[in-house]
Amino acid sequence: MTSTKHTSVTVGTVACVAIVSAFFFVSAAFAETNGAGVPSAMHTTMMKHASSTPVDTACVQTALDTRETAIGAAFDTMQSAVKAGLTTRKSSLHDAWGLSDRTARRTAIKTAWAKWSSDNKAAQTALRTSRKTIWNTFQSTVKNTCKTSVPPEEGLGQDGVGKIAL
């Protein structure tokens, strides 16, 4: 007796083959390049956004260097303010725990933590304000002095995502 092997093809297999085939046909349609290895459809889109005027890259570099130096200084200022707040908190809590009166001690501890919270928020707010001002100055300089625009990839949102959580 001879046995015959049957292969079963499921609907899922057929669908998978159809999807993969469609992908290859669509890929082949876009495979036409502009000679530089860039698909011609993408090349056309990129060229629409490209500037036809030369960009003063040295001017942008100078503006960028100024921006980055200022952002670094703003973070240094914030760090110094937070460190001073922590030093004040340490001293205030130390003194509070030296009080023998329970009510006075609890009030002093509460005051120390409230002062720390206020100092920390002020440092964070100052940093945010500084960063916004620095970025606005950069964008203005690039636009008015360098006579070009800043691409969307070069924006405030890329600078530490705008938040510092402590």
Please render the helix and strand layout as text.
Elements (H helix, E strand, L loop, with lengths): L10 H19 L10 H10 L7 H41 L4 H43 L22
Helix pairs in contact: 3-4
What keyword list fits this structure?
about 170 residues
Question: Can you give a write-up of this model?
Answer:
With 166 residues, the protein is mostly helical. It has a domain at 57-162. Helices cover 68% and strands 0% of the residues. The chain is built from 4 helices and no strands. It has helices at residues 11-29, 40-49, 57-97, 102-144. α3 runs antiparallel to α4. Mean pLDDT is 76; it is low at 6-11 and 13-49.
TL;DR of this structure?
The chain is mainly alpha-helical. It contains 4 helices and no strands.
Radius of gyration: 31 Å
State the shape.
rod-shaped
The mean pLDDT is 76
Structural class: mainly alpha
CA distance, first residue to last residue? 79 Å
- The amount of beta strand, in percent, is under 5%
Query: What is the helix tally?
Result: 4
Largest sheet, in brief, is: none
Helicity range: 55-70%
> Can you write the helix and strand succession as a string?
HHHH
Strand tally is 0
Uncertain parts: 6-11, 13-49
